[in-house]
Design goal:
Layout (H helix, E strand, L loop, with lengths): L3 H24 L9 H34 L14 H5 L3 E7 L4 E6 L4 E4 L4 H33 L1
Antiparallel strand pairs: 1-2, 2-3
Helix pairs in contact: 1-2, 2-4
Length: about 160
């Protein structure tokens, strides 16, 4: 898992740079295919997408580091190393599960109960989710109004 950290970091940086350049292209005069309020909405959609990508990548990197710590092994790793979130925040945890889609680490207790621990900061998860929703809503509005105007112009 530790080998994926630089790959994810580089890919996330490339996507964020691409989206930031698309944001500038949409925002600067003469550089985009949008006009009026659609130009501002498209630029905001690209900015929100870049923010969501950066926040999600930060959370995913944090989870990958948690997995790499747990797989590190050693004499103090049964069931978890001393700095694993399940061991640091709960007593009686016997297993864990990493959920990359929600950016959470879920610990399994001895009685089978599952509890999420604070591994990825709540602010990172909130920024990633809010930015993704905003990017989707803005992109949908730009796309829907563009399709309506194009269809009306053809008729």
């Amino acid at each position: 898992m530790i080998f994926f950290v630089p790959v994810v970091l580089l890919a996330a940086c490339a996507v964020v740079v691409f989206l930031a350049l698309q944001c500038l292209r949409a925002a600067l005069p003469g550089g985009g295919r949008w006009t009026g309020w659609r130009r501002a909405a498209a630029a905001a959609a690209f900015a929100c997408a870049a923010t969501a990508t950066a926040a999600y990548a930060l959370g995913a990197l944090d989870l990958m580091m948690t997995v790499s710590v747990a797989q590190d092994g050693g004499a103090d790793s049964a069931p978890f190393p001393y700095n694993h979130p399940c061991r640091a925040q709960l007593t009686g945890a016997v297993d864990y599960e990493v959920q990359f889609h929600t950016l959470r680490t879920v610990c399994v207790l001895a009685d089978g109960e599952r509890r999420a621990v604070r591994d990825v900061p709540r602010a990172v998860r909130t920024v990633a989710a809010t930015s993704a929703v905003c990017a989707g809503a803005l992109a949908g509005a730009v796309w829907a109004t563009g399709r309506t105007r194009t269809a009306a112009a053809v008729r």
